[in-house]
Amino acid sequence: AGRWDPHALEARWLPVWDEAKPFASGLPGDERPGKYVLDMFPYPSGDLHMGHAEAYALGDVIARYWVQRGFDVLHPIGWDAFGLPAENAAIKRGVDPGVWTRQNIEQQKASMRRYACSFDWDRVLATCEPEYYRWNQWLFLRMHEQGLAYRRPSQVNWCPVDQTVLANEQVVQGRCERCGAAVTKKKLTQWYLKITDYADRLLDDMEQLQGTWPDKVLAMQRNWIGRSTGADVRFVVEGRDEPVTVYTTRPDTLHGATFFVVAVDSDLAEELVRDAEPGVRETFEAYLEAVRGTTEIERLASDRPKTGVFLHRHAVNPVTGERMPVWAADYVLADYGHGAVMAVPAHDQRDLDFALAHGLPVRTVVDVRDEAGEPLPDPAQSRVATSGDGVLVNSGPLDGLRKAEAIAAVSEQLAADGLGGPTTTYRLRDWLISRQRYWGTPFPIVHCEGCGEVRVPDDQLPVELPPSEGLDLAPKGRSPLAAATDWVSTTCPSCGGPALRDTDTMDTFVDSSWYFLRFLSPTSTTVPFERAEADRWMPVEQYVGGVTHAILHLLYARFFTKVLHDMGMVTPTEPFSRLLNQGMVQMDGSAMSKSKGNLVKLGEQLDEHGVDAIRLTMVFAGPPEDDVDWADVSPAGSARFLARAWRLARDVTSPVGADPSTGSGPLRRVTHRVVADAASLVEGLRFNVAVARTMELVNAVRKAIDDPAVGPADPAVREAVEAVAVLLSLVAPYTAEDMWATLGHEPCVARAGWPAVDESLLVEDTVTAVVQVMGKVRDRLEVPPGIGEDELRELAMASEKVVASIGGATVRRVVVRPPGLVNVVTG
Ligand code: ANZ
Ligand code: ZN
Fold this sequence. Notes:
About 35% of the residues lie in helices and about 20% in strands.
């Protein structure tokens, strides 16, 4: 057909690629250097949506580019297949989560194939398959052996109506997101991974990622880990045998501590109020009840009134011997530091707000000055705490020291006196990985009355999920697996006696914390991944995915990589060298996410405009980090451009292999300039600009073809159109493949190789130098703009026209003004 018909191209080339497998990776004997390009794997919750289409179009540009550059590119895909969507569908429609999940995987796989994603289809995996989650269990056992996986009772958010545990995100203003009931706390014994052991390395190794990960993501990780350096201080509380420890970043202000606050929802508060008078206890209970209905964010908000209850107890300041009232309040958090603070109202705003609200004393101990050297106003009057640098006052032996000196001195003294000392505190908590749900990896642990917690031996893995049939999957705070009694009762691997299987399943973030390693050895039945493969491919050179995973997924993947490094299983300590967070696809400002509903259906867009036009639209819409508003882009415009490019190939009349050096110089310069620029643009992740440059090249070729002085038979035209085909192969693979065939080549254009750039064609355009003889213009020369005086003189004097006009006269002088003028004086 003489018309660009995207659907005909799709039908023609898909089967060819299925056969040719241009993106098979790691084949024996393949000598190309390796490179690992990874797209975040999807949840199989329905078909692909526009967000996937954007992410995979961008990842594909990178993967296909490196293939063209001669690399053996590992670009795998799989499915993050455990988790709630499958379970909710199962509960709503009564289908088995596995059946539902695998159907969706097949549907997504078909869509990805049509979308021409450059995945290596021989490496696919789904985390819900026993061959995969068996290795979750294996890794868990290794961590359990090292004490990195452990169980402990913990408070969880509990919805008494839905009878379910809620994640923090599911608690909205103290209420259940789903039913609106007031959320309570419940104690459950749960599994944790000891990520806090890695807090320092997770922070310090970010140095390796500086400049190659978005700054925003690094900042979010840093905040999440929240390292704080300060000191522990032990306070005697009257009537209590054990001293109470507080964490402070300002040990220098110890003399300014005027009261003491414990988190209202801490065990300590409960203990301190236990023997109090009934009136105090009741006030406390009522306050605690009210606080339970608020979120951590609300509790920490600085503009909230500072509420609290005096517990009628006293702590003793270890350096002044002063008695300080002990209060319970909600602005102190139970699970940060030690859940208690020494309050220094003069130098901490929240303490000051509290002191002013409850009539507690304020004592300045650091003399902080403004720029003019004037003391800042008294915090008790100004209601503004002073936190800057200054000189210690009202602090006995510390008086006269500067803040930093005092911090060091007090920390040392506390350590010497056994009253505390320097310490580091983190916001990061151990990772709670227990879920009381069905659709996840069972814990490979057996509980035996005699032996306690027993690891399932490696040779008995996987511990497979029991069939869902007959189990009530609805959330109820107890795992549905507990009802699978035949499955639960087992024998103890240690003593052979009767024992019970652990019935929780793992957080699905465990699955995604190491999937990038499983792609290296997707079918191994002896190891999660081969060490030799890890050496060949790791770390991932480029990771592409949504910013929604900026904290948890990336932190957990980094954590697992470090654990595996320590086990000698991988060399690098960071899994992902470079990270690209693509923007979101929006429709009139609303995100194309699972929850918002897909207003624009990917399938319909592909039907209407063709795969290539949609891919091109995604890539051309703007910088890859920016959101794409579907109302602002033009898939029809993309289609018109592709048709234009496609027609070029049909116009070429020179034969395959025609020598371009005999062709049009100006066109060649455009071609080579665009190819060179496109390479650095793609490597710099500026794909949209690379597309714009390709468009320029298409225009230049069309002009050349229509120009009688060049025309379709010029070998430079063939060279240019072949370059267009290769450039387009990164974005519009069907169109590119068809052009390649029209140009007389065998498939696949994806493996054609990046066009070699002739550096000499990259020199800047020329300028015209005028050559005069005795003031009369005799010749015009095209010269490089940077030409030197001698070179220009030589060129001018070599001109036949100039030589002819000089004739037999003697050259008296040559005036040279590079690059534009030469005047020959004769006589
Ligand atoms: C006394 C003091 C004086 C403080 C002063 C600050 C300024 P970061 O930097 O975030 O680690 N704190 C300690 N434990 C707390 C808890 N569980 N909930 C709420 N606040 C807590 O903060 C450390 C500071 O936050 C500590 O230093 C403590 O107040 C408070 F002029 O101690 B400070
Ligand atoms: Zn036993």
